Amino acid sequence: MIKKLITALLASFGTLLLLWLVGWLWFATHIASIQPQALNEKTDAIIVLTGGKHRIDTGVELLKSKKAKSLFISGVHNDVKVEDLVQDRPVPCCITLGYEATDTVQNGSESAQWIKDNDIHSIRLVTSNYHMVRAGVIFKHHVPNIKIIMHPVETDNFQTWSRKFIETTFGEYNKTLATWVKLSLDQETSGP
């Protein structure tokens, strides 16, 4: 009896491990090929999540090229001002900084409040390519009724299947799974 139980547990563990590995391979392959969506389409706003190189520059360039009328940058350090972020360039109109968020889940809730306060119906979400899947899960949870166009930013020195790529996608895949489970459980417990 105990031998059968141990065999069943090992088989279950092996199956879960295989599913996890296949999921990670899909995730890493997706990250390697992810590109900005609908480049010619305009949205009500652009939302940039801080934390990665080129994210803010990309958001500012999208605003300057009139892809939206406003830009919200979530997760900015308290001491930072708009002028610090655009550096030597002229400050474009309509940039709002969010100072509350310290992680991606908080980026989602901070941005959701700004979206609600500003009557936004569509956004272009800007973050690093490896971070886009988790950010998308969080934003679809916080603002399920708006259109979200994903605009991933390529990460420097992030060659596909390099050590950095494998380590980053491994960690991000696990964070994405944990976030998805947590948000699913939160939704079930809060219920309709």
CATH architecture heading: 3-Layer(aba) Sandwich
Which secondary-structure class do the elements indicate?
A: alpha/beta
Number of helices: 6
What is the percent of helical residues?
Answer: 40-55%
Summed over residues and divided by their number, the pLDDT gives a mean of: 92
- Nearest-angstrom radius of gyration? 19 Å
- The H/E string reads HEHEHEHEHEH
Sheet having the most strands: 5 strands, parallel
Total beta-strand segments:
5
How many domains? The number is 1
C-alpha end-to-end distance: 43 Å
Q: For this structure, what is the CATH class?
A: Alpha Beta
CATH third-level topology: Rossmann fold
Strand coverage percent: 5-15%
Question: Going across the major beta sheet, what is the strand order?
Answer: 3-2-1-4-5
Shape: elongated
In short:
52% of the residues lie in helices and 15% in strands. By secondary structure, the protein is of the alpha/beta class. It has one domain (39-190): 3-Layer(aba) Sandwich (Rossmann fold).
Description:
The protein is α/β, with parallel strands linked by helices and 192 residues long. The protein has one domain (39-190): HUPs (Rossmann fold, 3-Layer(aba) Sandwich). Helices cover 52% and strands 15% of the residues. A 5-stranded parallel sheet has the order 3-2-1-4-5, with helices on both faces. Helix 5 links the parallel strand 4 (122-128) and strand 5. The longest helix has 32 residues, at 2-33. The mean pLDDT is 92.
